[in-house]
């Protein structure tokens, strides 16, 4: 169950990162509110998952889900570049996440 909670926290990190971009520096109300709510929920779920998961694994995987998800949202929704170098970086992040999960207890 803690891994599912951690995954949900990571998904919410993607939501708040995207809505923060949409808030234009917190100058637009609705995206700003979405950012704050998603951020609070993401941190809350991360804290719950960290009750039983190792700190290094939980934090690394949480940020990794956010980074990978933000990359995909940036490319697919915002039209950002998907250059070979950025894709290689994404592959390395995913490899690190897999290794961290495989090396973790819980």
From TrEMBL:
The chain crosses the membrane at residues 33-50, 57-78, 84-102. It is a multi-pass membrane protein. The gene is sugE. Its main location: membrane. Keywords: Cell membrane, Membrane, Transmembrane, Transmembrane helix, Transport. This is Guanidinium exporter. It comes from the Bacteria. Gene3D superfamilies: 1.10.3730.20. Belongs to the drug/metabolite transporter (DMT) superfamily. Small multidrug resistance (SMR) (TC 2.A.7.1) family. Gdx/SugE subfamily. InterPro entries: EmrE-like, Small_drug/metabolite_transptr, Small_multidrug_res. The keyword Transmembrane helix applies. It is found in: Cell membrane.
């Amino acid at each position: 169950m803690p891994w599912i909670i951690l995954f949900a926290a990571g998904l919410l990190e993607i939501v708040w990162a995207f809505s923060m971009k949409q808030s234009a520096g917190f100058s637009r109300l609705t995206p700003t509110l979405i950012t704050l709510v998603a951020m609070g929920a993401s941190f809350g779920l991360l804290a719950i998952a960290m009750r039983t998961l190792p700190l290094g694994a939980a934090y690394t995987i949480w940020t990794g889900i956010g980074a990978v998800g933000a990359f995909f949202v940036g490319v697919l929704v915002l039209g950002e570049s998907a250059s070979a170098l950025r894709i290689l970086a994404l592959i390395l992040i995913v490899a690190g996440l897999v290794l961290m999960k495989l090396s973790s207890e819980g």
